[in-house]
Amino acid sequence: QVPLVESGGGSVQAGGSLRLSCAASGYPANITYMAWFRQAPGKEREGVAAIDSDGTTTYTDSVKGRFTISKDNAKNTLYLQMNSLKPEDTAMHYCASTFFRPSDALGSWWYDYWGQGTQVTVSS
């Protein structure tokens, strides 16, 4: 088991910003592949952003230019900076990791370890 603990969710108005954090304990984050996913009520889990072990990033189209994924290897922490938030960004957000390079960086089935989630609510 690889503990992942998310924080930073909350409620904001459209156009606002939030920064999510995901603390990874017990292993070095710089040798893993990590990602953020989200799931709104009644919808499937969706890949939002991913970061490779060498820092290469991938984003789903709907967040490009608004969200930034990053890692602080010294702190073993993954981040998701979310700007220009929209009501459609409302969802439970999860971080995930795997030790093996995923063929699809935003495919949830490739990730082995998951956090408990943090809620993001954006009002219009």
List the quaternary state of the chains.
Answer: single chain
Number of strands: 11
Helix content: under 10%
Rg, please?
Answer: 13 Å
Shape: globular
Structural class: mainly beta
Q: Can you count the helices?
A: 0
How far apart are the first and last residues' alpha carbons, in Å? 39 Å
Mean pLDDT: 94
Order of helices and strands: EEEEEEEEEEE
Largest sheet: 7 strands, mixed
Low-confidence stretches: none
DSSP strand (E) fraction? over 45%
Report what the structure shows.
By secondary structure, the protein is mainly beta. The protein contains no helices and eleven strands. Strand 4 and strand 5 form a beta hairpin. The termini are far apart. The model has no long low-confidence stretch (mean pLDDT about 95).
Layout of secondary structure:
Elements: E1 4-7, E2 10-13, E3 18-24, E4 33-39, E5 46-51, E6 57-59, E7 67-72, E8 77-82, E9 91-98, E10 113-114, E11 118-123
Parallel strand pairs: 2-11
Antiparallel strand pairs: 1-3, 3-8, 4-5, 4-9, 5-6, 7-8, 9-10, 9-11
Keywords:
mainly beta; globular; 4-stranded antiparallel β-sheet; 124 residues
Précis, in short:
It contains no helices and eleven strands. With 124 residues, the protein is mainly β. The chain is globular.
